[in-house]
Amino acid sequence: MRLFSTTVLVSTLAAPAFAADSELTVFDWAGFEEPSIFQAYIDKHGDGPTYAFFGDDDEAFQKIASGFQADTVHPCSQMVSKYRDAGLIEPWDTSKIPNFDKLDPEFLDSEIFKDGEGVWYIPTDWGATAVAYNTETVPEEDIASLQIFVDPKYQGRTSLPDSSDDVWALAYLATGTTDWTEVTDEQFQAAADWLREAHQNVAAYWSDPSEQAQLMASGAVDVAWSWNDGVTYLKEDDYPVGFQRAAKEGSSTFFCGFVNMKNGPGSEEKLYDFINAWLEPSAGKALLDTIGYGHSSTEAMETIKDEPAVAEGLSEVDAPILAQVPNDPAQREKQLAEFEKIKAGF
Q1: Which residues form the signal peptide (predicted)?
Q2: Helix (H, G, I), strand (E, B) or coil at 260
Q3: 303 with 243, same domain?
Q4: pLDDT digits (tens, 9 = 90+) for 269-295
Q5: CA distance 39 to 45
Q6: Which residues form the domain of 84?
Q7: Has residue 2 been placed in a domain?
Q8: For the chain, is the Cβ count within 10 Å smaller at the N or the C terminus?
Q9: 94 and 237 both lie in a single domain
Q10: pTM confidence score
Q11: Distance between CA atoms of residues 207 and 338, nearest Å
């Protein structure tokens, strides 16, 4: 069963947990080792890269900053400035990436990603964070609002991600803030107070989508703040799952991609082959089918625009959206510290 095999891989975080081509090491979220996403790389080299896995962006950065070596890492957009500021990455040579001009320009609309020194980030995938719920036990009226996470009726029946960015996106939305690039002290405090209340209902904080899916499939929880992949895994197992992206307070979106590590231990040629495989139009269908995410390439998205999974998990919704775009690094650190206190019961 796929839910459990992925978790086994996650248990070997930050080690070569999925050894294959020794000349390329990819440090990635569990689940992205799906061969169909980078099939062109396998076709050329006969095997996939060696993978090591992380559970959240801050953990990945700390391991890299502490000396863990990889050729590329797969952070989400709000983390790229940390890698740049720490001097851990170097620009990509886009002349070696034929499909670079097929990327949706929206994903590169920041000097953090692209400036006079070059292109520091190759966006590849995007998705939503919203309410996953058991359609047989949770009435539709209950998931009309994000206040379900603080409803006493669901005490011990909810799960939140062990990811500071995602829980703060939820807390800001639930308290009326839809833009986290300019957060006041009052907005921060309101979100923190709400998150402390939501903590009282949490049965477990999930560390990766397969764990979240297991929590729901086992019956331990009925409601989770979820990425697309957790919902995709549950559907594969015929679990009665819904994905509410149009709660009245809204939902969140994010996008992620790859950075080029300075002094990576492997082959630069193979690194570019890997990125080029990711940017093939065929990767769009593979990414959607296996993880439920959208692709950063307009050409890839064109191939899947009529897929039901796009309509359910990626289409526009008539509700507020908090976009997890780069925000103030100091604010992120403040949120991370507060989240750790909240999880510890303070």
Answers
A1: 1-19
A2: strand
A3: no
A4: 999 999 999 999 999 999 999 999 999
A5: 10
A6: 23-126+254-314
A7: no
A8: C
A9: no
A10: 0.91
A11: 18
